[in-house]
């Protein structure tokens, strides 16, 4: 039986115009949801089967087999599998000095993140080839995967039409306020953050903001911030960093307090999580 989830990571990502970081595949469960989150790399998903929605910059896109959606660094997003026909998709995470420029040539941008490759099956095969190549971890896989990524992107030269609902219209001032707060927290998570500082920076009343945020997200701003920090910490713990360095990187001045919060959140200490994750992917895209 084919695994529901798989992912491979580039063991030695280089620098340059396009660098593949990881590739994976998942057969999602009904209603499977990711976000709202912000990544610091590019991520493209290609829907192999099923359907779902992708939300970014106030727009909601309905996607089905053959569609692809691009996530840009620093952009708040959310995507959800359909409740009856959940999607199976493949993904590639990448970065690069000219990544955004090259995507713009294909008319793919932060405001036009949906595209359809010329050949659905060929695109899916290229995603699979990159994941397999990274999994082999051979010398030269960085160069080979970058080459395959260029071939893949060329498949989007005649990108499909967008299918958006609402186009962000009709969002209330409160919804825009909450989204702006989520974006701010997603960018500032590595800093020492307080509700007072956040409210002052955004120009909102603290009590009103906290109330509206919880009504729309089901959690307080500080709980949302902790969620972002813990998810980022999971990624960093799979890199060659000490627990103290990871704690500092996600906004904790006290590594012992960080460890307590991490164990409370995931049921394992940072050290135990690192040991359990040894040899597995450092990019946990579908948690």
Count of discrete structural domains: 2
Tell me the fraction of residues in β-strands, as a range. 15-25%
What topology, given as strand order, has the largest sheet?
Answer: 1-2-9-4-7-10
Envelope shape: globular
Overview of the molecule:
The chain is an alpha+beta fold and 287 residues long. It has two domains: 161 residues, Regulatory protein AraC (Jelly Rolls); 104 residues, Homeodomain-like (Arc Repressor Mutant, subunit A, Orthogonal Bundle), CATH 1.10.10.60. Helices cover 40% and strands 21% of the residues. It has ten helices and eleven strands. It has a six-stranded antiparallel sheet with strand order 1-2-9-4-7-10, with helices on one face. A five-stranded antiparallel sheet has the order 3-8-5-6-11. Helix 4 packs across helix 6. The protein is globular and about 50 Å long. The C terminus is likely disordered. This is AraC family transcriptional regulator. It holds the Pfam family AraC_binding.
Can you give keywords for this protein?
disordered C terminus; 287 residues; single chain; 10 helices; Arc Repressor Mutant, subunit A; 40% helix; 6-stranded antiparallel β-sheet; alpha+beta; Jelly Rolls; 5-stranded antiparallel β-sheet; 2 domains
């Amino acid at each position: 039986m084919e695994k529901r989830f798989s992912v491979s990571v580039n063991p030695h990502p280089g620098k340059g115009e396009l660098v593949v970081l990881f590739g994976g595949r998942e057969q999602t469960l009904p209603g499977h949801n990711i976000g709202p989150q912000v990544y610091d790399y590019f991520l493209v998903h290609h829907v192999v089967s099923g359907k779902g929605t992708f939300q970014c910059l106030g727009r909601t896109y309905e996607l089905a087999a053959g569609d692809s959606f691009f996530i840009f660094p620093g952009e708040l997003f959310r995507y959800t599998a359909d409740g009856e026909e959940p999607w199976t998709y493949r993904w590639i995470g990448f970065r690069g000095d000219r990544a955004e420029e090259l995507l713009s040539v294909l008319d793919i941008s932060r405001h036009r993140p949906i595209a359809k490759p010329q050949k659905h099956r060929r695109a899916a095969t290229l995603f699979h080839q990159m994941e397999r190549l990274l999994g082999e971890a051979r010398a030269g896989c960085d160069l080979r995967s970058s080459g395959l990524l260029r071939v893949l992107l060329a498949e989007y030269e005649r990108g499909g039409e967008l299918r958006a609902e609402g186009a962000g219209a009709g969002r209330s001032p409160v919804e825009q306020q909450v989204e702006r707060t989520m974006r701010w927290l997603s960018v500032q998570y590595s800093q020492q953050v307080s509700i007072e500082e956040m409210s002052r920076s955004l120009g909102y009343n603290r009590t009103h903001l906290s109330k509206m945020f919880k009504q729309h997200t089901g959690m307080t701003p500080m709980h949302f911030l902790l969620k972002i920090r813990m998810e980022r910490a999971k990624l960093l713990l799979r890199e060659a960093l000490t627990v103290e360095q990871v704690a500092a990187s996600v906004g904790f001045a006290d590594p012992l307090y960080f460890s307590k919060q991490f164990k409370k959140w995931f049921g394992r200490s940072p050290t135990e999580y690192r040991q359990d994750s040894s040899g597995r992917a450092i990019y946990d895209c579908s948690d």
